[in-house]
Amino acid sequence: MRLILGVDTGGTFTDAVLLDAASGAVKATHKAFTTHENLAVGIEAALDGLPRGAWPQVDRAAVSTTLATNAALEGLGSRVGCILIGYDPGVMRHYRLDRHLRASEVVHVDGRHDIFGEEVTPLDLDGLRDAVMHLAGDVDALAVSSYLAPRNSDHEHRALRLLRELTDVPVVAGGALSAQLDSIRRATTATLNAKLLAITSELLGTVEPSIRQRGVGAAPLVVRGDATLMALDLARERPIDTLFSGPAASAVGGARLAGIDRAVVADMGGTSTDVGILDDGRPTLTARGASLAGWRTAVRAAAVRSAPVGGDSRIRSDPLDLFIGPDRVVPLSRAAARQPEIRHRLAELDSQRQSHRLVPVWEFFALGRPLAEEVVSNAEQRVLRALADGPVDVITLAAQADVRDARLLPVDGLVARRLITRIGLTPTDLLHVRGEYADFDVEAATIASRIAARESRSDVDAFTARAHEAVIRALGTATLRRAIASGQPDLAESDEKLGAYLLDTSASPSSRVGPLDVGLGLTLPLIALGAAGAAWLPQVASRLRTECVVPEHAAVASAVGAASTRIVQEVEVLLRPQYLRRGGAIDYAVHSPEGRAMFASESEAREHALTVGRRAAESAAAAAGATRPSIDVDEHTWTLDRDDPDEPVQLMETRFRFTATEAGPE
User: Residue 558: pLDDT above 60?
Assistant: First the structure.
């Protein structure tokens, strides 16, 4: 029997599965905790849980991950400087477009092409050098985007060459990531890609040797956000393509495990719950590009709504409000099960009735990954020294780090760089308190909930019921918004008061308000996936008036999907005539991944487009790991009718889409 290995590294768990290559049947599974301070530990533990004798039968391995998605949600990653070539600084300021880029700093450089790809302003190489000098030492990576790179990428290519000569930090070009004309989305995509480079590189640099050490000859493939596979080296260069990798894999795995081709699928992990829609057994894809947590990218990905609520979401409370997510923390129940001193300190805080209106006094911090070459401030250094002997609660940490108020502790930057981890109250702890889950330290979860309840001016039962209801409503409204987005994408994002009221009421225990029943429901079944899915999502389905399906192996659906995914690569080539004002084409431009080429006749341009498109698709498929891909060509031509019916129609453009596919397991 030949086998396929699937691995999924999420915010909380790393899962490994073995599938029968012929039938797709699940033969073995194992879960282990994701160890963010050293990913290799969690990956090795997941692989070691599979049968040792199966490794010689493994022909292929594939990896999915939610690390990129979670990093975007939590604001983690490298500091990025964004260099914009040919963008109008005045327009950017007037419309506040810089905020979409979310870079540490944005610098403008002169240089521009027109819509036909002709240079109208030369690239300012001296300005580029000044930009590098200005950003040096303040950023970990650079993103560069030329305003009309899809029409002519010459300025970006020249900028890349110069930047790589002048600096040692990674440099990312927007035009290499997307052919969209939307210049802001392209620049945003380049910035986020640069931000994610280090996070994804750590994962891929760990998982490959772990798999190879077990005798699997081929390098593992990586699941893209559009539920296709790419090669490991490509994933290292383009971590942005792994955005929604985990949700895309879980949708494919959910369809296979549940045997359902059309459904709403929700995967509840540690950091987030990802909601998508299955059509013909595949996740539906975004029309323009993946968006989450304020990032508007040009990346083709599964159309997923990520609710920042998962089993490990941070719960904070005060007398006026309760907040769940978007940060992921280590559940107190889990941390205390490993280190009982946490439970003992919680008991002391409870007996002392410690309180701080603006800081969760039940939270702890612990060291994360080892300090490498990062620059840390003196205050941050004091925090790291205070944590050297183990986890410390926030009140004690402030005293030991010589900070007069716990609010002033410089912990957020250290958490963002994963140098320390936060331990706190989570939905997983709520399940322990409510008696629905008891794998870890129930007493620690109960004490922390009692402290949080006191801060909220309530008792434990009322607090946990309130927090539990907040989780259900957050999941319910996210599911409804994703369903609405399938027909009305813009409406689904609206926060207009009436719409928000209808969504929240529909996700409530009762949708009846006086004489009105405002309940919105789903017409498709809800497939519940993920380690926490079975605990929460059946209640969501009940409120949304639909069936909930929790298939066998639902907790490892992403790993199953990774092993079931195919290699697919798409390349687009554009043919456009350039007309004189008096009419008649003067020449034809072909825009492709190989650059812009000009031809005197439409037939020559068409022949070139077909040749270069096939070559680019085959090359992309080979880079993704395909050996004998089939190439399909889809052609769409836009013409303008003449007033005189006897005159031939006027060609405006022809778009060729080349799809290279290598079949996966049936």
Answer: yes
